[in-house]
Write a structure and sequence with these properties.
- This protein has 611 residues and is α+β, with helices and mostly antiparallel strands.
- It folds into 2 domains: 187 residues, Penicillin-binding protein 2a (Domain 2) (Alpha-Beta Complex); 361 residues, Beta-lactamase.
- Helix content is 35%, strand content 19%.
- Strands 2, 3, 4, 5, 10 and 16 form a 6-stranded mixed sheet that branches. Strands 12-11-20-19-18 form a 5-stranded antiparallel sheet, sandwiched between helices.
Length: 611
């Protein structure tokens, strides 16, 4: 081998060696300067990141009374790596926290699979228990501050809603807003105003020594962030009136909704049966939720905004208004009633009363026959060309009152109700139908369905003589000048204001003129209550009782709808509940305590909900 070949090989070998060292140097430099993986692993040995949970925003009523508050509590966490070989007193820990030894062992098994990660042992640990845990200083265990909901009034379960731990879908849809262990509003105000109530969590970085003991805040808290509390929500609800409504509805199935006509603010939203919101917090939440879920009366279902009921005779008000606007009816127009409306084999029965009646007295007496005539005159109007075209016009009028569609309130899950259309009947009867086929619509029966919120909104619309404000549950949000502007805009019906006068007068007569109508039991001296009873036919048993009302007649302050399933006549149970609530709201007193007791002791046992 020549010396030249040897030299070339030596140069090549040196180049390879230098190349290897250069690659190693580049790798080391990359790791130190750019790759955070190993730094994170190192930090994980000496740093502990603790979430500082933001207190959820509080909820108060329109008068400043607390409906929902945040109460201090703690999550007990364990980091398996920090337990050490010395162990701890498992019996004492279980006794303090109130968990079984089996559960603790399951948690420890899970924690062992991720020894450097903090694992939840027990949630909602009270402050006094946390203090005891600190005294014993169990190795590897630490507590994290957070808050839980507290309900001073124990009212409004369906109205306020509840919280639930987020699931994977919540985390995915939240796009980084949520992480495992966070809670989210699942119903009511808690869900509708989640983005304002939840706040923003902070973080605290703690430094540990080689034995896992906390040395203090890392870099004197330079990288810590403070939590930002959620916004306080002011509800439109009157807490005292809400509590009274729930008291009167206890043991019954149905709903009460009351609205301030001049603003659309909801004063009462009571769904019955309801639940104590305290039942859906803490460690018994899961058991209580399943118990409520199994209850056949479905207390978790908010009937006030989701139930679909036939409006019954309260809907006659809408028929009269449409007839007046369309010119097929005048206030002085009279019709006879011979215990009902009878055409061939078709009959709509009616209770005994004077006959004939004009519009005002037909409203006061709730005459079925009168509004059968009016309904047929509307949809058979020759200018429409056919009954089917007439029904289309009628449907448009009805929807302008807020029926058959969502009202666009700020309540999640609001139901639209049902207003049957021409297409619906064409499909059902294969195109062969007429005004007598759908005659039950004239008295609020048949395929008509509406929510108690829609019925209360009708009361507010009549009180305002032709317009309403979209009903809403929140009055103000901390830090904001106003709520959504849509709640300040008037929503007009297709009926002119002047046509509401005879309808209002008829409602007033029904209450305030003794013996002149079906609503006289709602009378309270000096309040000028206007009302309309409704008895909705029920294929499952006893008729439903409903009452629609507002007061006073001029410059009204409250509009209300009460619906009691299986309650019988409208005047039997729904009417007195509404009358008492109106009296309490307008006068801050109750002059008929015996009526309160009668309602509480009302014989009520619907077989439809029998266990």
């Amino acid at each position: 081998m020549s010396g030249n070949d040897t030299y070339i090989r030596r140069v090549i070998l040196q180049a390879i060696v230098y190349g290897i060292f250069a690659l190693l140097a580049l790798r080391v430099g990359y790791i130190q300067l750019f790759d955070s993986k190993y730094k994170s692993l190192a930090d994980g040995n000496v740093l502990r990141y603790e979430v500082l949970y933001a207190p959820r925003g509080e909820i108060i009523d329109r008068n400043g009374e607390y409906l929902v508050q945040s109460k201090e509590c703690y999550d007990l966490m364990v980091t398996y790596r920090d337990i050490g070989k010395q162990g701890f007193d498992t019996v004492r820990l279980c006794e303090l926290v109130g968990i079984s030894k089996e559960k603790l062992l399951r948690v420890l098994r899970d924690a062992r699979s991720a020894p450097r990660k903090a694992t939840l042992v027990a949630a909602f640990v009270p402050t006094e228990v946390k203090v005891r845990l600190d005294e014993y200083n169990f190795p590897g265990f630490h507590s994290v501050y957070r808050t839980m909901r507290n309900y001073p009034r124990k009212i409004g379960g369906n109205l306020l809603g509840y919280l639930e731990e987020v699931n994977r879908n919540d985390i995915k849809e939240g796009e980084g807003e949520y992480k495992m262990g966070d809670y989210i509003g699942r119903a009511g105000v808690e869900a509708a105003y989640e983005k304002y109530l939840r706040g923003d969590d902070g973080v605290m970085i703690l430094e540990k020594d080689a034995h896992g003991a906390i040395k203090g805040s890392y870099m004197d808290g330079l990288y810590d962030t403070l939590p930002v509390a959620g916004k306080r929500i002011t509800c439109t609800i009157d807490a005292r009136l809400q509590a009274f409504a729930e008291e009167l509805m206890e043991g019954k199935v149905g709903a009460v909704v009351a609205i301030e006509p001049q603003t659309g603010e909801i004063l009462v939203m009571a769904s019955s049966p309801t639940f104590d919101p305290d039942e859906l917090i803490g460690r018994e939440r899961g058991n209580n939720y399943m118990r409520l879920l199994r209850n056949k009366r479905n207390p978790l279902f908010n009937r006030a905004v989701k139930a679909k009921y036939p409006p019954g005779s309260t809907f006659k008000l809408v028929q009269g208004l449409i007839g007046l606007q369309e010119g097929v009816l005048t206030p002085a127009q009279t019709y006879s009633c011979h215990l009902g409306y009878h055409v061939g084999r078709i009959s709509q029965k009616c209770h005994p009363h004077a006959s004939p009646l004009d519009l005002r007295n037909a409203v006061a007496q709730s005459c079925n026959a009168y509004f059968c005539y009016v309904f047929r005159d509307i949809i058979e109007n020759r200018k429409y060309g056919s009954v089917k075209n007439g029904l289309e016009v009628w449907t448009d009028y009805v929807k302008s009152f807020g029926y058959g569609r969502k009202l666009d309130s700020d309540f999640i899950g609001e139901g639209p109700g049902t207003v049957p259309t021409r297409e619906f009947y064409d499909k059902r009867y294969r195109g062969s139908w007429n005004s007598l086929t759908v005659l039950s619509l004239s008295i609020g029966q048949g395929e008509l369905g509406c929510t108690p919120l829609q019925m209360a909104n009708l009361a507010a619309t009549i009180a305002n003589r032709g317009y309403y404000y979209i009903p809403h549950i929140v009055k103000a949000i901390e830090g904001q000048d106003s709520i959504d502007r849509r709640f300040y805009e008037r929503q007009y019906t297709k009926v002119d204001s002047e046509h509401f006068t005879p309808i209002v007068e008829g409602m007033w007569r029904g209450v305030n003129v003794q013996g002149a109508g079906t609503s006289w039991r709602a009378y309270v001296p000096g309040l000028d209550i206007c009302g309309k009873t409704g008895t909705a036919q029920n294929p499952h048993g006893k008729d439903h009782s409903t009452f629609l009302s507002f007061a006073p007649k001029d410059n009204p302050k409250i509009a209300i709808s009460v619906y009691v399933e299986f309650g019988g006549f409208g005047a039997t149970i729904a009417l007195p509940i509404a009358s008492l609530l109106e009296e309490y709201y307008l006068t801050d007193t109750i002059t008929r305590p015996q009526l309160v007791e009668t309602i509480k002791n009302f014989p009520y046992n619907p077989r439809h909900y029998a266990e």
